[in-house]
Automatic annotation (TrEMBL), chain A:
PANTHER family: DNA-BIDING PHAGE PROTEIN, TRACRIPTIONAL REGULATORY PROTEIN-RELATED-RELATED. Keywords: DNA-binding. It comes from the Bacteria. This is Helix-turn-helix transcriptional regulator.
From TrEMBL, chain B:
Keywords: Membrane, Transmembrane, Transmembrane helix. The chain crosses the membrane at residues 16-36, 42-66, 93-111, 117-138. This is Uncharacterized protein. It comes from the Bacteria.
Length: 63, 145
């Protein structure tokens, strides 16, 4: 699944560690999502969307 | 990765008693089985069996009766990529071991070799641990590079 998580994170001047702490997951998880190697679970996708005040489909796009 | 952390909470006292009783029953059962398998030296074998079984049996007792009260689960543990790596590594290692055992059995049957079971079993344990560990590191490296 494609996503613009890295751009959104950079827009807030957050490091991957900052985002990982906000989401309650490991930094490796954030790296893997940004590199599109790992599709987050639905609860995590909702949490990411809530963190960036947008809808899930604003961040994730099905290929 | 799925994480759990210990808390300062305590379980009700009777849960610790139940955990100990379950652990003791399992330990005695294992030691009797081990002793019975070696009737010439029952008490020595039973003692070794009890020593080997005591820790995992008591741990199981604590897991069943105590840990629900004293261990806090990580709410997001299931959502981390490490769990996916671990599952992939475990599944791959299982297939590797299965193939290795099949090949070894074929070689033994065709070649009519006989080998002691103990070193083979120890080798299998070592191989599966190393295999899963190496697979985990390779998967992790590929995903993060």
């Amino acid at each position: 699944m494609k996503n613009n998580l890295a751009e959104r994170r950079a827009g807030r001047n957050w490091t991957q560690a900052d985002l990982a702490a906000a989401l309650g997951v490991s930094r490796q998880t954030v790296i893997s999502i940004e590199r599109e190697k790992f599709d987050p679970s639905l609860p995590l996708a909702f949490l990411i969307a809530r963190t960036f005040d947008c809808a899930i489909e604003d961040i994730f796009v099905a290929e | 990765m799925s994480k759990a952390s210990f808390t300062s909470r305590r379980a009700p006292v009777h849960h610790y008693v139940l955990a100990f009783i379950l652990g003791a029953i399992l330990t005695i059962a294992v030691s009797v089985l081990v002793g019975a398998s070696n009737p010439g030296d029952f008490w020595l074998a039973a003692g070794i069996g009890a020593l080997c079984a005591a820790y995992p049996a008591m741990s199981l007792g604590a897991k069943v009766f105590v840990s629900n009260h004293t261990v806090a689960r990580d709410a997001h543990g299931e959502q981390s990529v490490e769990l996916q790596w671990m599952r992939q590594a475990g599944a791959g290692a299982f297939l590797d071991i299965l193939v290795a055992v099949l090949v070894a059995v074929l070689v033994l049957v065709i070649g009519r070799f006989t080998v002691d079971a103990l070193p083979v079993l120890l080798g299998l344990i070592g191989l599966s641990a190393v295999d899963a560990g190496v697979r985990y590191l390779v998967i992790r490296y590929r995903d993060l590079k």
